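ok so I'm stuck.
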Amino acid sequence: MREHARVVVIGGGMMGCGLLYHLAQEGWTDSLLIEKGELTSGSTWHAAGQCPSFIADYNMAKIHHYGNTLYPKLEEMTGQYVSWHGCGGLRFATNQAEMDYFKKVEGVSKLIGFRMQVIGPDEIKAINPHVDTTGVLAAAWTLDDGHVDPAGCCNALAKGARDMGAEIERHNRVLDVKQLPSGEWQVVTEKGNVTCEHVVNAGGCYARLINQWVGSDVPITNMKHHYIVTEPIREFLEADTEMPVMRDPYPSAYYRQEQKSGLIGIYETEGAEEAWADRGGHPEWDSENELFTDELDRISPWVERTLERMGIWAESGIKRIVHGAIPHTPDANPLLGPTGGLRNFWQCCGSSIGIAQGAGCGKYLAQWIVHGESEINMADLDPRRFGRWADADYVRARSIEDYEHMYILHLPGEERPAGRGKRQSSLYDALKQAGGLYTTASGWERVKYYSADGSEEEAGFRHNNAFHAVAAECRLVSENVALADLSSFAKFDVTGRDAGAMLDRVFANRMPRKTGGIALAHMLNDDGVIEGEATVTKLAEDRYYILSAAAAEVRDMDWLTQHAAPGEDVTVTNISDDYGNLVIAGPKSRDVLARVTDADLSNAGFRWLTAQEIEIAGVPVRALRVNYIGELGWELHCPMAGMPAVYEALMAAGQSDGIGHFGTYAVNAMRMEKGYKGWGSELTNEITPVEADIERFVKLDKDFTGKAAVLQRRQDGAQGKIVYLELEAGDNDTTGGEAITVGDTVIGLTTSGGYGHRTGKSLAFAYVQPDYAAPGTEMTCWLLGEARKATVLADPVYDAGNEKLRA
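replied:
not stuck anymore, here's the structure
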């Protein structure tokens, strides 16, 4: 076995082989995959092999579609059998909310390019005459998906990788992974050691064991999963065409034709079981090809429902039962990207449908490893979206919930109970008592809106009972004064003699020169694409306070710590859980705040976009005159333990002014009216400041990471441009990932949106082809299957001159 490689991939299942293949395609043929048994011997070999197109998430849809275009030609490309069955798929809708969801996915299909039609019961019966459509309103017919032989497909990717020059070492158990003083990695195996620049954990069900070697963990729960293969079915023996893959919420199952037999895969909606629960949730490292004894009694209610649907199977015997483990993550997305706190130790695991996703995950992760970014937005796939708060209990509870809801639609506004309460601000109980309804973000409980009558949100895709409650909150902020707890921001103290110089190099904007100055700044990589966005406040010559998105906490900590140069006197401290953030906003906010502090809050004494360290109710507060909603106001950052005292003082001081509360739904509505772009939606690793129209925050008279690439992009011209849109109002608004068309041509997609209650406008951001970016240009946005006229705006629809912020 070789002693050096550029990349070592640990694990020879679908994810590992998919990555190796695409690393070789990107030119990194000096890559080595090590598998402790035979290729596919983990969970790949016993998978059912489904490859669906039906998915509403734009980036995940790209991953699925890529596999469904590669697999049909992979056998011819490699000479290794794949056994692609392009039979298409049907997914049933049994209520109106699912019908709305189908329309949303149909919009994604326009963007991605997979064929999809929403069809009625008669058309369903024409495609699959054997299925009982009782209670079915419609089906999503995805014509381009199907299923493969999992082992064959995985081996075809492996053969393709070897043909391009990559190497595979089978029957070689990895024993340890160590980081060397040089920063390189040493992979210790039974057959010797390999030194490499990058290590990738593609261990599937064994991924947690692999990460533990480097003092880390991954948020994966291995779940037991059954599928059953029947004896041959007479109707299939006589048929010339293959039945499509059926996905059905009634039995919570997929079912299809397997050769001339039937195949039924069950996702229990209750009582699902973790695999190897008595061993900490993972298999022994020396085990291979592990299956469990079948538990037919446990899954029989769902099997019986499937047989109601497919009556021709009811009297058939069982030929084979497969009861194996599949990994699930708390949010159903795979783990693709770096490991927090470690350099060049990557994750390629956590996929619950790894056959469908293996090729696409491999493609886009390979791009990230080789080039520093991917052509799709990786934020929702990055393993660092989970922090230390995602402990074993949280991961287990959320992953089991994900498994049990495989075919149960998670509606917008629906709050599921598993894993809740991991991170709470010190105002949690007080705001709940005030009527706050909580949702979660990066483990944080945060109020989405306040319910006057105590009723929960009526979850769905269209305007609901939250709509008018949020409108009232926006009026309160714009006409009076209100408070919001936005403690979920990621928060960092950056200190040391060289802190300012380091930050000036890391961020494209110029760092504040004066104490109390505030800058909105962006982190770029060497290719000029956006890695993060932060608000940077200078508290002293050697002390800075940085705020960024909740979901970027671990990612931004990595970026800041890993970009300090050797010998620099810089310390980065994550204080996200230690500090709270209470926002006070509205035309009366200055009056209320003045009653609880001795600080001079006048425009002359406390200018917009500056900060001061003040005191409220005996609590030291970092007061920033800045906010995300476009009204006069302050962000009040203080030790979490002191925030209740600050809150109570403000509520008492504002009682005569009718002070109230607002939540994150109102924040989003108001930020859309101000035209404020968001990290992870508008600002992603796919684009540079040129496409995002944030060049005013890029100071080309200084050196910073990515400067040369930004200059080159300005010279070459952007391939897409962001636009700010007003849509014809309806009973729903943009959520992101909707198609934008002109005539029959798709020219872009939305990134986020919402209804602006202060202005009565439905608003959205979108990326479109540059020829359509001029103000006044009209286009069509597709929302839940409805064509809405959209017009490009030149300026924010609310207070474009920032007069209210400066008041």
